[in-house]
Amino acid sequence: MMEYILKNGIVYDPANGINGEKKDVMFKDDIIVDEVSADAKVIDVTDKIVMPAGVDPHAHVAGPKLVVGRLYRPEDSRMGVSQKTKVLRSESGFSIPSCPTTGYRYSRMGYGTVVEAAMPPLEAKHTHEEIATIPNIDIPALPLFGNNWFVMEYAKDKNIEDLAAFISSWLKISKGYGVKIVNPCGSEAWGWGMNVHGYDDKAPYFDVTSREVVMALAEANEMLGLPHSIHIHPNDLGHPGNVPTTLETLDSVKNIKKSSKATIRDQVMHVTHLQFHSYTGNSWKDAGSGAVEVADYINKHDHITCDVGQVTFDETTTMTADAPMEYDLFKLSGLKWTNKDIECETAAGIIPCIYSKKSPVSTLQWGIGLELFLLINDPWKVCLTTDHPNAGPFMRYPRIISWLMSNEKRQDMCENEVHKWIYKRTTLPTIEREYDFYEIATITRAAPAKIYGFEDRGALTPGYKADIAVYDINPNDIDPSKQALDIEKGFTVADYTIKDGQILVKDKEIVKVKESQNIWVNVKGWERQEQKVIDNIMPFFTQYYSVKWENYPVQDHYVSNPIRVDVEK
Amino acid sequence: MFSLKTITFDQIKTSSIALEMDEVIPDEIYSWTEADFAKYEVPIGNSRFPITDFFDITVEGEAEGPNEVKMIFNGDLNRVKYIGCKMSAGEIICNSSVDLHVGAEMSGGSILVNGDAAAHAGREMSGGYLEITGNTKEFTGASYIGEWRGMTGGEIVVGGNAGKQCGECLTGGKIHVKGNCDILAGIHMTKGIIEIDGDVNRWPGGQMKNGTIVIHGFLGRLLEGFVLEGVVEDPEDSGVVFPGKYIKYTGDIGLNGKGSLYLDAEANKEKLSTYGELDDDYTSIREYRNL
Q1: Mean pLDDT of B218-234
Q2: In B, which residues are within 8 Å of A73 by CB distance?
Q3: Pairing state between β B212-215 and B191-196
Q4: How far apart are CA A46 and CA A133, in angstroms?
Q5: What percentage of residues in chain A have a pLDDT greater than 90?
Q6: Which of A301, A389, A315, A321 is nearest to A354 (CA)?
Q7: B contacts of A78 (beta carbons < 8 Å)
Q8: I want to staple A501 with a disulfide (CB 3.0 to 4.6 A). Which of A30, A129, B44, B252 is the partner?
Q9: Which of the four pLDDT bands, split at 50, 70 and 90, describes residue A227?
Q10: B145–A72: do the CB atoms touch at under 8 Å?
Q11: Which GO terms describe its molecular function (chain A) (predicted)?
Q12: CA of A279: how far to CAs of A42, A275, B179, in Å?
């Protein structure tokens, strides 16, 4: 039995309302406790920031598209190379780092949980194999449902009960955590070389609209009482003039009642990488920011939460199940592009992207992301993401934090570094708000944990997992408004990262590597309905899938050491 | 080049696995003494070994910066790669053929290879001068595998023949091949100049968007994406003039490319005439493509 005291740290724990209090944090084995014995080891963290370990609510870190991305962008893999050490394997990659590198870099930043945001059920085995090779972080994965042929049939028939049983069954089959929707009906339309361009466009052949699919999935999600709400990447991503589609999507679920079983979260829809969905105009020639309108909607409604997908001005790799959008991007940039159709479930595309400060469009996207952060009043409704690697690599989170905490830095960038569109097409230069450490802790750990309904992390509550980050920043001795570089440096490498009570990072060096854990949701009480659904779809599955049913589910040996979250009916 | 410090590497042992010399460039070692070299371990495969196991190193003179350094390698360098990789100044002379990636990513200074170079010579070079007196293998002045940006500046001179995909993804600078060139020279190039004194096997300039390819020798086969413009005299690109008459093509039209491909008219005339394809007024040059 190991006991530790993190002594004299300055604690930011928004879930418990602790805002910069000097206090000790204690843990015994892998659990946070409120008292320890006299034998407890003392770690002196005097005047250093102590927070729960970070929770990344949306990133692409494991799965087939990552592998394709690495194969197809070897030029990315040669960046960030470092030799193996006694503790670590060699590292490589920038926007699509290798699996071990991904775990190491999150660990260095003080993160403990990262959600893989798009897992095709057909490729779930592969995703879990990759999760198993990413150390030091827990990784729940969200299976894709928004273009699944069975889902579209249930939605067309408004058969919510069978849809709920289907979701329940498919979460077990894929070892998934929640319901992910990507460009509903649009990725399916890509099979015909098409897309949908509005919330009420119909998918070819299926005669069902995006609205019907999203609302059906939201109702089924609440019928099951899943810990997380539906998690949506709306239609029209990245297209100028997509604000109406975004607002229609958000508004469509406002009357759906949240399940009483989902006691942690408040929302019924989490909208992801909202920056990409907040553009006005008709083309890139007259595109502008719709952040004011979108943020205003979120400020006035409590059924929505979001993450931003902040552009970081890097050369990165975009990868998404929104395959038609990737084709559009290819037509714009002409860079190398690949895409894939995943049978009856979804599609995917990959293309490199260069976000440049000299580019008006990149500048606009950067400005919109920051506007959303700064215009959404309640930090519990917004999370820090870059939609890694789509808007930039997750390693840039500390830099984004420095932008959020320093108006002076933002103004300097507007004036001297980015394109003049920042003044003409956004309101960013007029916004003076600066985040404090408490708000940073909220958007990087407390809010994502709440949004996902985690009952064991994202806070320093006794009984929770001992997932803790210590940063070498003294809040009483730093002015984030004027010391943006110091803030970025301070959050880039944690002084300590503690995961499940194990010290993984000590004095800014990784000293230990531990096995990652998958988190998946097991809905109980729907077994009879699940079997009925499987019996009904079996003839279709047998005819159209390229794998046999017996080989389709993720068997237990693909998911070593999982964390199973049971949901009772 | 003006040098104050000369560092001579006399080989005493070879390795079956290549030595990686990208850390031993003027930028890094200009202040090193023989004692510093004695402490240095060079990467070989997944391990490091004392560089003095492989070279007898002599240091003469002092340098205050990399531009005051001259490095001379003597011996068999066929299993020594990354020579001059990422260097920004100084001078390197290799009195042997060299392994992969000589002068890769260099931004300044000069390298002279008195022998052949393996693949990726001058890969992604952005400045400086690289001369190889012998032949080069594939991807001379090209991009890294998968990249779409190759050499962006500087000059490469190949005294002998160049292998496949010479100047692939060229985005600047000049490559001068004094011998022959294998297939797909200048594929995907967007800018810069490739001048080939000898013959070209096939398909130069595939998917090129811009830039200039000049072929003084005989061309085996041209891609369909090139449009015959006619005969021009003394064409020029970025201030470099190529005296004489040339048959000009523009391509690759498959990508709306505006690249220029010049065939030395006189050099090709004699050969083409043996096929009866070309008369004195070049009126039958349209047949050229179908050879």
Answers
A1: 86
A2: 146
A3: parallel
A4: 35
A5: 97
A6: A315
A7: 144
A8: A30
A9: very high
A10: no
A11: hydrolase activity, acting on carbon-nitrogen (but not peptide) bonds
A12: 51, 8, 55
Q: Is B45 on the interface with A (CB under 8 A)?
A: no
The answer to whether residue B146 neighbours chain A at the CB level (below 8 Å) is: yes
Is the CB of A75 inside 8 Å of chain B's CB atoms?
yes
Measured between CA atoms, how close is B209 to chain A, in angstroms? 12
Residues of chain A contacting B144 with CB distance shorter than 8 Å: 74-75, 78
In one-letter notation, the amino acid at residue A461 is T
Q: Per mean pLDDT, which range of A113-117, A311-315, B223-227 is the poorest? A: B223-227
Cα separation, A58 vs A142, in Å, equals 10
CA distance readout (Å), B142 to B83, B126, B162, B217: 16, 11, 12, 22
A59, β-bridge pairs: A116
Q: How far is A22 from chain B (nearest CA, A)?
A: 46
**A354 part of contact set with chain B, CB < 8 Å:** no
pLDDT reported for residue B291? 39
Residues of chain B numbered 163-182 and touching chain A (CB < 8 Å): none
DSSP sequence for A214-249: HHHHHHHHHHHT-SS-EEEE-SSTT-TT-HHHHHHH
Cα-Cα-Cα-Cα torsion B89, B91, B94, B100, nearest 10 degrees, comes to 10
User: How many whole angstroms separate alpha carbon A22 and alpha carbon A25?
Assistant: 10
* pLDDT > 50? residue B137: yes
Instruction: Decide if pLDDT at B242 tops 60.
Output: yes
In this prediction the pTM is: 0.89
How do residues B47-74 score in pLDDT, each as one tens digit?
Answer: 999 999 999 999 999 999 999 999 999 9
> Closest-CA residue in chain B for A83?
B46
Instruction: Kindly state the helix (H) or strand (E) to which residue A108 belongs, with its residue range.
Output: helix A99-108
Q: What residues have CB less than 8 Å from B226, skipping those under 6 apart?
A: B205, B249, B250, B251, B252, B253, B261, B289
Enumerate residues 6+ apart whose C-beta is below 8 A from A381. Answer: A267, A298, A304, A305, A306, A447
Per-residue pLDDT reduced to its tens digit, B72-116? 999 999 999 999 999 999 999 999 999 999 999 999 999 999 999
Chain A residues near residue B148 by CB distance under 8 angstroms: 335-336
Task: Tell me the mean pLDDT in the region B262-270.
Answer: 81
Query: Sheet of A304-307: strands edge to edge?
Result: A180-182, A230-233, A269-271, A304-307, A382-383
Q: What's the confidence (pLDDT) of residue B3?
A: 64
> Tell me, what amino acid is at B74?
N
pLDDT, tens only, A438-482: 999 999 999 999 999 999 999 999 999 999 999 999 999 999 999
The residue in chain A having the minimum alpha-carbon distance to the alpha carbon of residue B144 is A75
Give the model confidence (pLDDT) of A242-287 as tens digits.
999 999 999 999 999 999 999 999 999 999 999 999 999 999 999 9
For residue B256, give how far its alpha carbon lies from the nearest alpha carbon of chain A (Å): 12
Task: Mark which residues 67-126 of B lie under 8 Å from A by CB.
Answer: none
* CA-based nearest distance B3→chain A, Å: 33
